[in-house]
Design a protein that fits this description.
This protein is α+β, with helices and mostly antiparallel strands. It is 25% helix and 26% strand. The strands form two sheets. Strands 1, 2, 3, 4, 5 and 8 form a six-stranded antiparallel sheet that branches. The protein has a two-stranded antiparallel sheet with strand order 6-7. It is globular and about 45 Å long. It starts with a strand and ends in a 21-residue tail after the last strand. The C terminus is likely disordered.
């Protein structure tokens, strides 16, 4: 068995019922084979960036996994597909978008996967939820660089490990 690796996943949606889609994706992450949901940020509302359509709901999840990075990407894409994700064109509005932001301390640069995520440090809708659950990973300078991007909390309250039931999923099935 592979050793566990800590990874961070961004979640976003702006079609259908985005709040429910992100909450359901957190549930799915927590029950995916080889994945354990450790923490999840509040849910944030942001205007589309390099995209169109209604506002997005965004969050970041901290997981531990025994999956390789490519296998984790496959699992994330399966969750997206289960939520009806289509990819008609780059940055199209979406029912669900899951991005692998960080995978341990690893750096991956392949045609299929780049870690750290190439636009991680340019997006307030990723950095604010990330700093909420992993403050040591984001510097004040990085936050200042995205300070002009409007982000508001849509549903406060991170899912902390102390709030988990014996099965490892959040009590009540979703973040507060």
């Amino acid at each position: 068995m592979r050793p566990e690796v800590t990874a961070f996943i961004s979640l976003g949606a702006n079609l259908g019922e985005p709040l429910q889609a992100v909450r359901a994706a957190l549930e799915s992450l927590g029950t995916a084979p080889g994945v354990r949901l450790v923490n999840a940020s509040s849910l944030y509302r942001t205007a589309p960036q390099d995209s169109s359509g209604p506002d997005y709901i965004n969050a970041v999840a901290e997981i531990t996994t025994t999956l390789s990075a490519p296998a984790l990407l496959d699992a994330l894409q399966a969750i997206e597909q289960g939520a009806g994700r289509e990819r008609p064109y780059r940055n199209a509005p979406r029912t669900l978008d899951l991005d692998l932001l960080l995978y341990g301390g690893g750096r991956i640069d392949s045609p299929r996967l780049s870690v750290p995520h190439p636009r991680l440090w340019q997006r307030a809708f990723v950095l604010l939820p990330l700093v909420e659950i992993a403050p040591s990973l984001v510097s004040a300078t990085q936050l200042e660089a995205v300070a002009d991007q409007a982000v508001v909390i849509a549903a406060p309250g991170a899912v902390h490990p102390s709030e988990r039931n014996a099965g490892g999923s959040p009590q009540g099935g979703s973040p507060r």
